[in-house]
Amino acid sequence: MTHDHHGPELLPTPAQTAAALDPPAGRRGGDLVLETLSGLGATTVFGLPGQHALGLFDALRRSDLRYVGLRVENNAGFAADAYGRLTGEAAPLLLSTGPGALTSLAALQEAAAASAPVLAITSQVPAAGLGGGRHGYLHELPDQQASFRDVVKSVHLVRTQSQIPSAIAAAWESALTAPHGPVWVEIPQDVLLAPTLIPEVTGLDATPEEVYPRPELTAVAADLLSRAQRPAIIAGGGVIRSDASGKLKALAERLGAPVVTTYGGKGAFPWNHELSLQSWMEDQHVTEFLQDADVLLVVGSGLGELSSQYHTFRPRGRVIQIEADPGKLESNHPALGIHADARLALGALLETVRAHPAGSAPGRVREVLAAVRARLAKQELTLEQELLATIRAALPNAAPSFWDMTILGYWAWSAFDARRPNTMHSAQGAGGLGYAFPAALGAAVADPAHPVLAVSGDGGALYSIAELATARQYDLDVTWLIVDDGGYGILRTYLADTFGERAGEPSMDLPGPDFVALAESFGVPATRATPDTLGAALTESLARPGPSVVVLPVRLRMFAPTHG
Questions:
Q1: DSSP labels for 396-425?
Q2: Would the N or C end of the chain have less CB density within 10 A of its end CB?
Q3: What is the reported pLDDT for 6?
């Protein structure tokens, strides 16, 4: 398949010529960075200043880009991650050298695991210290890129000012080519600081490449699905990233195929649809149902640990896997692997697959969900389910929510109705603590039309507590629910399950602050709730402009995934 590509006009207009011959005075290398970002369509940048990066932050004073500064580099990365997920744009993240850059690593790992487009631009020691024999610079990390190569999607090194526009444009294109992901641009301090006579940056071309499916593979897949007696679909985060939820629903209905969404694919399929198995990926009833499918279509998922019952999943029928990341194709299960963007591949299947009557599929789905509910009922987990229902009732349908690695977040992966695509997000990709609140701040920057909810445990909250200052500074409409159980609740559970329970766990118990008083010290309204008052507290906080905190002191239990 060939595709015409029309790049920018090679001949400058008279206005471009005049501007190029008379560039504004006082510009430096940092201005080239921000001019390139503006030319690519960026409107907002996140970050944290540092000594080597001052050339970037000086240039911000001459730029129209909006700057949102956070208090910790990792949190700035989480905010950029959420901004990229919600807007589908590459979110610029400005970082300094060495410690500042390294502090962002966990956030970039999450962005990579979740396919969030983040464009990290970091400073570096002066070029003389990069193989030139000069050493001893502050923050020195001569091979800084080596720390990031195994984390980000691509690395782009700049050593002269003339390389800046092309390097950033290439990084932008990489970040937004499926699968989306974080990219890394490194620029030495002296290159950022030096005056420049290079004209203002115009005429950029950074069109992401489309990842089309091979037609002979979609023909085979369509034939298998058309003849299937018990088709089923697993929909992952790739469906969300490629905006393919509508095509997924159309294909499932045409095939009469039940759909389960992975934790990264929350909202990709309507929760209460007659073919929806919801997100019970860790339930044995759902696992057995999927294993029994004669043709299993996996879209936008690598069937990793959390999507495969911790690698115990054993499908007995044919597997078709559509995945934009070639490294994930057939990495866990033999399949007809189709390397493609989910939206394009689903569109190709819709053109050729033969319609099935739904037949007994809706009834089989009802039976499985009834078995899930019966299993949970035997475990006496009413409190946890009621808390999720309370949160769902208080949260407007279009309002995004961000969940940390906490027991209530784990419950939400399986049991929370996201209601709309791209509205529920968590750190389940890489699994780092502290994601929810700074990510929610990035979402509020991306879409100020809706309130945002963040849910953390007390352990995760302490990772990002400094960002209460950011929330107040920018007056962002984020409600932060902190479930305070006095420790690392889920790790406490894992420790007890694996090694036995005992009174007092010094490694897991966390004597913490008074979160209400702490939030109020930042000028952020806060309230302490009970399970009975939580709904009213959340409703009031979500309706109030600006940031707010709701603290819920409670100990929760996790469900057991096997038959109960």
A1: -TT--EEE-SSHHHHHHHHH----STT-EE
A2: N
A3: 47
pLDDT classification of 429: cutoffs 50, 70, 90: confident
For the residues of 470-511, what is the DSSP string, one character each?
A: HHHHHT--EEEEEEE-SB-HHHHHHHHHHH---S--TTTB--
Which class in CATH covers the domain with range 215-367? alpha beta
CA distance 406 to 360: 37
Q: What are residue 233's phi and psi, to 5 degrees?
A: -130, 135
| pLDDT tens-place string over residues 352-391 | 999 988 789 999 999 999 999 999 999 999 999 999 999 9
Among 77, 68, 69, 75, residue whose Cα is nearest residue 43: 68
Mean pLDDT of all residues in 148-165: 96
User: Residue type at 517?
Assistant: A
* Confidence label for 308 from pLDDT (cuts 50, 70 and 90): low
Element (H, E) at 168: helix 164-176
Q: Which whole-number Å values give the CA distances from 76 to 119, 219, 359, 402, 440, in the listed order?
A: 12, 44, 50, 15, 11
Handedness of CA 67, 73, 76, 77 (dihedral sign): positive
How many alpha carbons fall within 13 Å on the CB side of residue 459?
19
- The DSSP bridge partners found for residue 355 are none
Any idea which fold 379-553 has? Rossmann fold (3.40.50)
Q: Which of 385-399, 418-432, 437-451 has the lowest mean pLDDT?
A: 418-432
- Give tens-digit pLDDT for 461-495: 999 999 999 999 999 999 999 999 876 667 767 66
In the chain, where are the structural domains located? 14-193, 215-367, 379-553
Secondary structure tally for the chain: helices H, strands E: 22, 17
Query: How far is residue 251's CA from residue 273's CA, in Å, rounded to a whole number?
Result: 13
Least confident of 28-32, 398-402, 451-455, 509-513: 509-513
Is residue 133's pLDDT more than 60?
A: no
Superfamily name and number for 14-193: Thiamin diphosphate (ThDP)-binding fold, Pyr/PP domains (3.40.50.970)
* pLDDT of res. 349: 98
Residue environment code for 68-98, b if the CB has 16+ CB neighbours within 10 A, otherwise e: bbbbbbbbbbbbbbbbbbbbebbbbbbbbbb
- Residue 201 near residue 138, CB atoms below 8 Å: no
pLDDT band at 95 (very low <50, low <70, confident <90, very high): very high
Whether 338 and 213 have beta carbons less than 8 Å apart is answered as yes
Same fold for the pair 215-367 and 379-553: yes
List the structure tokens of 76.
Answer: 């700035």
CB-based burial, 375-414: b 16+ in 10 Å, e otherwise: bbeeeebeebeebbebbbebbeeebbbbbbbbbbbbbbbb
What is d(CA 470, CA 472) in angstroms, rounded to the nearest whole number?
A: 5
